[in-house]
Specification:
By secondary structure, the chain is an alpha+beta fold. 42% of the residues lie in helices and 30% in strands.
């Protein structure tokens, strides 16, 4: 009986540990999404910068994360269109890359 209780307890603790890791990963990805969307919205409000471009970071980036927003030319498009790429990195791993098009408005 004690052996069964011990096995069940060990399995339960193992499941809790796995669940906690999963929650941490989900929280990091959720934070990455919030950062990327906020930054992409900010870039939309900024003046068009000729490619290759680096847009300023507008959000407070939490410790352990880094954020970049760059504009690249779009193949086959004129110089009034660029691909804006917002990347969120944490722990040396890219968590999220968000791409949008930005157009120079007259």
């Amino acid at each position: 009986m004690i052996g069964v209780v011990g096995t069940v307890l060990a399995a339960s603790l193992g499941a809790l540990g796995t669940g906690a890791v999963g929650l941490r990963i989900a929280a990091s990805r959720d934070r990455a999404m919030q950062l990327a969307i906020t930054q992409a919205e900010y870039v939309k409000t900024q003046e068009y910068v000729d490619s290759p471009a680096t847009y300023p970071i507008s959000v407070s980036v939490p410790q352990g994360f880094s954020l970049t927003a760059v504009g690249e030319p779009v193949a086959g498009a004129d110089s009034n269109v660029q691909r804006v790429i917002v990347s969120v990195v944490s722990g040396g791993q890219t968590l999220l890359v968000l791409e949008e098009l930005k157009v120079r408005r007259p």
